């Protein structure tokens, strides 16, 4: 699976990339929302793992933008946040995200959870998620 990870924290980005790569996924990485449109045009992902707290454009705004465009609307987006009070699961789902994960990410189950989201998007991935 081709996964686009949008994460501004270098440690988190490195960890997520290592976990996904070890699961056989092809990972593209961005640290801000500014280059997303261009990246998706060049390398359309099967799934987007989106940190909701990004510099510049808010993650939920980016999700809404991607879901409003015909060329990106069908790409499942998994919202990731370390601030479940500021970025609720309900808000992420309303913005068009297929799933929601609260950090710290359970690296042991991340690959399986993303695969299930790609097959059948679900609003909650269990475990580290919060309603």
Key descriptive features of the protein:
Rossmann fold; single chain; 35% helix; disordered C terminus; globular; alpha/beta; 131 residues
Explain what the structure shows.
This protein is an alpha/beta fold and 131 residues long. It has one domain (2-119): Rossmann fold. The protein contains 5 helices and 5 strands, in the order βαβαβαβαβα. The chain has helices at residues 10-22, 36-42, 59-68, 89-94, 110-119, and strands at 2-6, 26-30, 47-51, 77-81, 99-102. The protein has a 5-stranded parallel β-sheet, sandwiched between helices. The longest helix has 13 residues, at 10-22. The chain is globular and about 30 Å long. The protein starts with a strand and ends in a 12-residue tail after the last helix.
How do the helices and strands line up, and which of them pair or pack?
Elements: E1 2-6, H1 10-22, E2 26-30, H2 36-42, E3 47-51, H3 59-68, E4 77-81, H4 89-94, E5 99-102, H5 110-119
Parallel strand pairs: 1-2, 1-3, 3-4, 4-5
């Amino acid at each position: 699976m081709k996964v686009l990870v949008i994460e501004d924290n270098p440690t988190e980005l490195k960890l997520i990339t290592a976990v996904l790569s070890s699961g056989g996924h092809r990972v593209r990485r961005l640290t801000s929302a500014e280059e997303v449109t261009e990246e998706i045009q060049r390398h359309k992902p099967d799934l987007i793992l989106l940190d909701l707290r990004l510099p510049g454009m808010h993650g939920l705004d980016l999700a809404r933008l991607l879901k409003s465009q015909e060329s990106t609307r069908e790409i499942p987006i998994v919202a990731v946040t370390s601030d479940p009070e500021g970025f609720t699961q309900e808000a992420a789902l309303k913005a068009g995200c297929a799933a929601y994960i609260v950090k710290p990410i359970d690296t042991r189950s991340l690959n399986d959870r993303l695969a299930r989201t790609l097959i059948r998007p679900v609003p909650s991935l269990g475990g580290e998620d919060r309603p």
